[in-house]
Design brief:
The chain has 265 residues and is an alpha/beta fold. It is 37% helix and 20% strand. It binds adenosine-5'-triphosphate and (4-amino-2-methylpyrimidin-5-yl)methyl dihydrogen phosphate. Belongs to the ThiD family.
Length: 265
């Protein structure tokens, strides 16, 4: 490790209102004592009410950003969030191939407010060529359904989806988030030889903008510190639960979570 300070990189879109995307990731890294870096895939115009516009960065400029980072001080772990086009995925794949650091893929597809954040035609490439490079993949239920082609309504369906992720898509591990199901908020980590289920009460709030970004960023931060995936998953779950419980209630729509809330180690 060149630097004693753990470093994590996010490759994602921006949300100027600070709830999701790159800003949520950097706030999460900072809270976990990790130095944050970012390469921007898309600039969005969005707030707690929805996504008003999207500008995709040309793939060549994403390449330039990643080149600047990796030619100087390489991160110890990285994550991706919104990647709108297949061209950008080609670029990211090249860096993931060349640098063997833990890579967390949050397969962002649709915002909480319902806006499509990925080209429909890029989903096959994401599934077949990017996901197999990840240390873990963190789909929510609709994303897991889209990527596996099955309907998920129960724990048995989640297990079936995990099997497809691991045996057919070829991912090393998958964390399926149950935030979109009814009842308690239950998340599932599946690795080759074991699985772990973490449950928390479902907090009654409309303020869940950026929960997926935050959860996967905390996991990435912990992996940058060389913690195990299981430990990282446990910390991610505790962090997001407190962050949702103590939401700052910002904006007129679905507000962001609280990055000052989690006080644990
Ligand atoms: N109301 C809630 N109460 C407690 N935990 C929740 C709640 N909603 C989501 N979570 C937790 O937040 C994390 C993110 O889950 P979710 O399924 O919402 O992801 P997502 O849909 O990708 O998030 P995003 O809103 O950023 O798109 C998971 O750990 C999930 O269990
Ligand atoms: C740039 C960017 N990345 C990710 C999301 C998903 O987050 P959410 O589902 O909470 O809107 C988003 N809205 N914007």
């Amino acid at each position: 490790m060149a630097s004693a300070l753990p470093i994590a990189l996010t490759i994602a879109g921006t949300d100027p209102s600070g709830g999701a995307g790159v800003l949520a990731d950097i706030k999460s890294f900072q809270s976990r004592g990790v130095y944050g870096m970012s390469a921007v895939t898309s600039l969005t115009a969005q707030n707690t009410l929805g996504v008003q516009d999207v500008f995709n960065v040309p793939a060549g400029f994403l390449d330039a950003q990643l080149g600047s980072i990796f030619s100087d001080e390489a991160p110890h772990a990285m994550k991706s969030g919104m990647i709108a086009t297949e061209e950008m995925m080609h670029v990211i794949r090249r860096y993931a191939d060349e640098h063997s650091i833990p890579f967390v893929i949050d397969p962002v597809m649709i915002s909480t407010s319902g806006h499509n954040l990925i080209d429909e035609g890029a989903i096959d490439y994401l599934r077949d060529s990017l996901l197999p490079l990840a240390a873990t993949v963190t789909p929510n239920i609709p994303e897991a359904e889209k990527l596996t082609g099955i309907t998920i309504e129960s724990e048995a369906d989640i297990e079936k989806a995990a099997k497809i992720f691991m045996d057919e898509i070829g991912v090393e591990s998958v964390i399926i988030k149950g935030g979109h199901l009814k009842g308690d908020a239950v998340d599932y980590l599946f690795q080759k030889d074991d699985s772990l289920k973490l449950s928390s009460e479902r907090i009654d709030t409309g303020h869940t903008h950026g929960t997926g970004c935050t959860f996967s960023a905390v996991i990435t931060a912990e992996l940058a510190k060389d913690r195990t995936l299981e430990d990282a998953f446990r910390t991610g779950k505790k962090y997001i639960t407190e962050a949702i419980r103590k939401t700052p209630e910002l904006g007129r729509g679905q507000g962001p979570v609280n990055h000052f809330a989690y006080k644990g180690e």
